[in-house]
Design brief:
The chain is an alpha/beta fold. Helix content is about 40%, strand content about 15%.
Length: about 375
Amino acid sequence: MKTIIVNDVAASSGGALSILRQFLAELKNNEVAKSYRWIVFVSNDLVNEFNSEHIEIVKVNAKKWRKRIWWDTFGICKWLHNRHIEPSLAVSMMSVGFLFLRARQVVYFHQSLPVSGYRSYKWFEFKLRLYVIAIGRWMKFSFRRGATVVIQNSALRDSISEFFSVDKNSIYTFRPGIEKDSFEVTERQDGYSYRMIYPAIASGSYKNHEIIIRSLKDLSQLNMDLFMKLKVIFTCGEDDNMLTRSLVRLSRRLNVHDRVEWSGYLDKKELNRLYNECDFIVFPSLVESYTVPLVEAAHLGKWILAFDKGYARFELEGYEQVRFFDTSAKLAEEIVNFYRMSHYCAERTQKWSSGSEWNNFVRTISDLAKRNS
């Protein structure tokens, strides 16, 4: 039986962990996958949940960057060598390759920031800037010629092709999904006036919380009554980092601070409640690979305001209850438009599911391993 190894020690929380769980769930039940031996390296507690006859989950102490780099470069090679394992295929779910493994490689790409060309960092985001430079160089350095590249969003194809110097026609695109059991449609429980939520932490200025704050100022000049009714919820805290503190200062300077609610981190249950109780979702991020909150919102039939970027149009293709914007003024206008048709917004008029392509991903991996005798 041929062996396929999968490395995803970076997935410890958030979207990365959700992607890993979806992949393992498919792997566990996929009939084609059962013809291979799978060794999956993780740094979390998924061992008991996904171990099976054909899947061995190996927990590795590699959450910190220094340990992770050592593991990706030398540790995984040593682990395989000590057990006399020669894999037919090595799959990295972490956007970086295996520098010293001789096996054919598949790199599952989800780090869009290094290839995005985004440069509008705040002066205090020097750590983020250095991280992007470092991870970008490591991605290039560890990428081996002949490796197969997999992306989540076809909008990234051109930039990935240029970044890795690979033919864009040889890049696979497989759409992930969501953990649907985590979100369900429920009835509203409170009597608020008008509420929208941006379900994203302020991990960098590219998340673009600022445009929402500036749109509130535009809204106050466009429709004061609606401005006084509206509440914007950010799923991060006022004092989380220098970026959130700067956003708080901006909201005070523009006299819109009272319209912003900083909820802090929310677990799945709390987020599900807010998804159902809000009038619509707003997502203004400038750089994304695959945006789970957009797909979750569409799965619940919510109305969505999204920044006009390729990732959003790809993920919400065929979804009718979405409007796109590219300026704070346009966002303010769309908020007014949503409010005017609020009787429609209150109804979930479209049942929608993007559908995941994990089955195709697993079949492609298995086919590559089969051909790599």
